[in-house]
Design brief:
Layout (H helix, E strand, L loop, with lengths): L11 H9 L2 H15 L4 H14 L1 H16 L29 H4 L1 H7 L4
Helix pairs in contact: 2-4, 3-4
């Protein structure tokens, strides 16, 4: 039998996870969220910004800024809507010419994509 989980703060774990990320991981997360939320309607964007802000104020602010920047930038000159300055601890160093491997973005993806045997 399933029992309801009592939660007093639905956003604490997500906020702690966001703050635990390295700077480059936060940059990529923000860039990915902005890219995915770009085509959504304003009501969806605002709802997501509200949720992310409850997790961490910086998290919501950065996504909101990225979406605003995406709105004001031409499609030819934007990179997923957010200007990201790679931090010193970024595994790709200062070069942003190649995309991070799926392993860095989602460890499950690499396991699912790995060939058997």
């Amino acid at each position: 039998m399933r029992k309801p989980i009592s939660r007093e703060n639905d956003y604490q774990q997500a906020g702690e996870r966001y703050r635990a990320f390295a700077d480059w991981e936060r940059d990529e997360l923000i860039r990915n969220l902005v890219g995915q939320l770009g085509p959504c309607g304003d009501d969806i964007r605002q709802r997501m910004i509200d949720h992310l802000s409850k997790c961490d104020a910086e998290y919501g602010r950065r996504v909101a800024e990225g979406l605003a920047e995406q709105e004001g930038t031409s499609a030819n000159s934007r990179v997923a809507g957010v200007a990201v300055r790679p931090s010193a601890d970024h595994p790709l160093g200062s070069s942003r010419s190649r995309s991070p491997s799926p392993t860095r973005l989602n460890p499950m993806t690499s396991r699912l994509m790995a060939s058997p045997g």
